[in-house]
Design goal:
Distance between the termini: 27 Å
Number of helices: 16
Shape: globular
Number of strands: 14
Order of helices and strands: EHEHEHEHEHHEHEHEHEHEHEHEHEHHHE
CATH topology of the largest domain: Rossmann fold
Strand order of the largest sheet: 3-2-1-4-5-6-7-14
Number of domains: 2
Strand content: 15-25%
Mean pLDDT: 94
Structural class: alpha/beta
CATH superfamily of the largest domain: Glycogen Phosphorylase B
Length: 391
């Protein structure tokens, strides 16, 4: 079977999709699927190209507004590749147009992974632009997909709420269990942490991540428990999007908590591993997610996690691997207090439950097996997998 994977960015600028799309493609390749990936060049695409390893990669220069990712040559290359199946990741951009037109010409199936982009918060963000895109191309692209891919039941419900009646496969993101035997240094100066325990955030610095609420909650907690400044600190890692870091730094200064908040910048490779290894807990106060890779990674390193319902991992609180929090400053404060008041043994036990959860449900071996069954159903007439839900 030959599958073409369509995306806009193949680099770190894609955020979580950089990991999830790449890892899924690599594991499907290892299972015998021929994979070609089509993407648009950006600032980091040449630098990040090598991590896709043996996958066939095809990059195109964008013209016009970069956010739309219009790339002449993209469609012609897809025609020339003549895949049996197209798997389109993400919405609202030119690859969706290419995918729909390819299917009309060749009468072959395609699968769409919205990656959280149909959740209510995501739809409300830049609402008018998305409504125009929906009328022009996106709704038709979604409606004619042979199958939609949801990362969780909540995302599947969002697809139904959008009016889509396609089959939906519910297949989560996955993760490779890390090498925890090799220790990496912490990616922050020793004088910054000064022996304090670290609560880590790792992801894009974007308003949807709820970091303003995190700082507000942290400020209230430090006001109520001033001695905690000497025993705990927040480390916020990730690349800045749209100048949001400067907004957060100003907010931290206004709250008087700059001495207990460290902005670490983008963390990749051994720096990211070191951050997870030297943190005591992880938190994601997000307003909207598909299924966040960062939480799976934190669990894989045995960290207890604080997460909002919008992170779409109800398995965490149910298994005792996460502290549930509301997506506001009160929820952030409550979650932070809960994690900082635990003993070290209690945090370790919670983190170990997360590690077990990942091994059982969220490794790439498990995930790619499920997705391969979906591909076989779409292309080769195999039985409909249990993960596929009909309307």
């Amino acid at each position: 079977m030959h599958c073409a994977v369509l995306t806009s960015s193949i680099s770190r600028l894609a955020g979580g999709l950089f990991v999830s799309t790449r890892k899924l493609s690599m594991h499907l390749l290892a299972r015998g699927i021929e994979i070609d990936v089509l993407g648009v060049r950006d600032t980091y695409s040449n630098e990040d190209l090598s991590v896709w390893q043996d996958i066939g990669m095809h990059l195109f220069d964008a013209h016009g507004p970069h956010a739309f990712a219009y790339a002449p040559g993209y469609a012609a290359k897809l025609d020339a590749l003549a895949p049996d199946l197209v798997h389109c990741h993400g919405l609202w951009q030119y690859p969706s147009v290419v995918c729909a037109r390819w299917a009309e010409r060749h009468r072959r199936p395609y699968l769409v992974s919205p990656r959280g982009m149909l959740d209510s918060w995501a739809l409300a963000n830049s609402r008018l632009k998305k409504q125009i895109a929906a009328v022009c191309f996106q709704r038709r692209h979604l409606q004619h997909a042979a199958c939609l891919h949801a990362l969780c039941e909540s995302e599947a419900a969002s697809m139904r709420a959008y009016g889509l009646t396609n089959p939906i496969c519910v297949v989560p993101n996955g993760i490779d269990m890390p090498d925890t035997e090799t220790e990496h240094p912490a990616p922050w100066p020793t004088k910054i942490v000064e022996g304090r325990h670290v609560i880590l955030f790792l992801g894009r610095l974007h308003p949807k991540k709820g970091l303003a609420n995190l700082l507000e909650g942290w400020g209230v907690l430090l006001r109520d428990h001033p001695g905690m400044r000497h025993t705990w600190c927040l480390v916020i890692g990730g690349w800045d999007q749209g100048g949001h870091r400067a907004e957060l730094e100003r907010r931290a200064a206004k709250l008087g908590i700059s001495d207990s908040v460290w902005f670490a910048g983008p963390l990749h490779g051994t720096e990211k591993a070191g951050a997870f290894q030297h943190a005591a807990a992880f938190i994601l106060p997000s307003f909207s997610e598909g299924l966040p890779m960062a939480i799976l990674e934190a669990w894989s390193y045995g960290l207890p996690v604080g997460a909002t319902p919008e992170c779409n991992l109800p398995e965490g609180p149910a298994a005792g691997a996460a502290v549930a929090m509301s997506a506001d400053a009160v929820g952030a404060r409550t979650c932070l207090e809960s994690m900082t008041s635990m003993s070290s043994d209690e945090r370790i036990a919670m983190g170990e439950k997360g590690r077990c959860l990942v091994r059982e449900q969220f490794t790439w071996e498990v995930v790619s097996t499920q997705m391969l069954a979906v591909y076989e159903w779409l292309c080769n007439g195999a039985s409909r997998p249990d993960c596929v839900h009909l309307p």
